[in-house]
Model the fold of this input.
Amino acid sequence: MSWKTAYRSFYYQDAPEPEDILLVPAATALLVIDIQNTYLEPKSDPADDARWQPFFARMRETVIPNTARLIAACRSRGIETIFARIACLKPDGRDRSLSQKKPGFNYLLLPKDRADSQIVSQLAPKADDIVILKTTDSALTGSNLRLILRNMGIENVVVAGIFTDQCVSSTVRSLADESFNVLVVDDCCAAATMELHAKELEIINMIYCHVAKLDEVLSFFA
Done:
């Protein structure tokens, strides 16, 4: 099944197939969201760590290698590579949004210079890559990314990263509201479980973005 008929929700089950996608390098940016050291660290509770093993495996075996391929393909074509990472500017995190201050999984205290807040070494940004810091789930809401994209004449944003059902989804929805064409790369993203990942892709596909596999996305480049 191709991207044109996959990932269909109830709303789009019988919708016409979308038109072919052509990504012109000068009007396209790659946005890699939150692939940071903290999310690959073992959990302190052995039972909790065991629960997260499928996510860790998907990150090691699929998401990180595929995202590295995607980054290389974009750089070779002159497509701007942008990294977004959750990182607070104050050591005590008082600049974070409320969603990141609440107790629970989404509670994050990641001062910007700490090692666990950095992008994983396999995807390390180059000197001329743009790296934005965000204190919200949406990379558009929590930074000056909107202005950066507009200044560079970007119309299409290719999205990779984690978590599909949280920061990726929030960013995709914000980008769509700002009338960017958004393309989410299925096998460059992950949620805590494959069920959550697949369901969120189905929810956002066709209305906020198009969803495709990496090999399909690579064929869209002009």
